[in-house]
Design brief:
The protein has about 325 residues and is mainly beta. It has helices at about 5-10, 170-180, and strands at about 45, 50-55, 55-60, 65-75, 80-90, 95-100, 115, 125-130, 135-145, 150-160, 180-185, 190, 195-200, 210-215, 220-230, 230-235, 240, 245-255, 265-270, 270-280, 290-300, 305-310, 315-325. It is built from 2 helices and 23 strands.
């Protein structure tokens, strides 16, 4: 599936979604405001420190205690992110980076993780990949003791899960739900909004009545059993395809019992019969003979499907099913 395991990658790999979804998920969007300090100290809050920018680098100067600058970034619980910070230099004790789900004020670097580097280890670019534990994640940068620390290129980006991490239904639930797809804890995928109509014939149609090609539209006799997405219009007996794709069309019916007469049902698309597709019941005795089957047809968005009757016997009510459904 690829390294990112995101929805866009799944779509490019051929995963079929249930409706017209345009996936515009950005790749590695930057979440930190002014992380390169090109706009001075905008976006950063001082705690026990004086902040200044020179040459595109932030200096966090000590005012006593745990000296820091911090910024809160909106995150999604359990989503994976990568933090990157360049620690340029520090005078005195350690240069420190912290992550927290709470505001990191006072003598704390937060409740998630912190990284400290001595002056001899700098410059150094610290990276860390983690899952967010809150809806806001705070990045803090500064120093311990009476120091001044310099930083550059602070970045936080949403990323996909690595290949060696097992995906669970919980990891994907939000993204799938936003696309109208359900994922159970056992891994079953459901598409509850897949366009579909299922009908039954509530009364006889054209009993002992002859119609030659191109036949007559079967109308006024359908009872709607299901109409997911409301793409079947009972006022004109048409199904309008909501998106381009492959549709399944199924018909099962009983011929009206007329000896020596026959019944055919043709599929029409946009007013014309489709490729000679006809479900035909035979010209034999006057018994109740069933005909039907299922075909797949490629349609464009807004194509119109309906059924036409041809023959001499007519169609018996009930004891059948008429269905159109988007496959993919």
């Amino acid at each position: 599936m690829g390294k990112s395991h995101d929805i866009a990658t799944m779509a490019s790999d051929g995963f079929a979604f249930p409706s017209a979804v345009t996936i515009t998920k950005p790749s590695n969007a930057e979440l930190v405001t002014n992380g390169d300090f090109s706009n001075g100290t905008t976006g950063w809050t001082a705690s026990g420190a004086t902040l200044s920018v020179s040459g595109g680098q932030l200096t966090v100067a000590d005012n006593g205690g745990y000296t820091k600058a911090y910024q809160g970034v909106t995150t999604v619980v359990n989503q994976t992110y990568t933090l990157s910070v360049t620690q340029v230099s520090v005078t005195g004790q350690n240069s420190v980076i912290g992550l927290s789900s709470a505001v990191p004020t006072g003598n704390t670097w937060g409740n998630m993780v912190s990284f400290a580097k001595a002056s001899g280890d700098l410059p150094h670019t610290q990276t860390h990949t983690f899952k967010a534990t809150g809806t806001t994640t705070y990045i803090s940068i500064g120093s311990e003791g009476t120091n001044s620390a310099v930083f550059d290129n602070v970045s936080l980006k949403e990323v996909g899960l690595p290949d060696n991490q097992i995906l669970t239904a919980g990891d994907l639930t939000t993204e799938f739900n936003n696309l109208g797809i359900g994922v159970t804890a056992s891994g079953s995928v459901t598409k509850p909004y897949q366009p579909m109509v299922r009908l039954r014939l509530s009364s006889h149609f054209a009993a002992n009545t002859s119609h030659s090609d191109p036949g007559v539209q079967i109308a006024g006799v359908f009872t709607v059993r299901e109409n997911i997405g409301n793409h079947w219009n009972s006022s004109n007996n048409n199904f309008t395809c909501p998106v381009a794709g492959v549709y399944s069309v199924s018909v099962f019916y009983i011929k009206y019992p007329s000896s020596g007469k026959w019944t055919g049902v043709d599929l029409h698309k946009n007013g014309s019969a489709v490729d000679g597709i006809r479900w035909r019941a035979p010209e034999i005795n006057g018994g109740y003979h069933q005909a039907g089957g299922t075909i797949a047809i490629t349609c464009a968005a807004n194509d119109v499907l309906d059924w036409h009757y041809v023959g001499t016997a007519g169609i018996h009510s009930n004891n059948g099913a008429w269905q159109i459904m988007l496959l993919h």
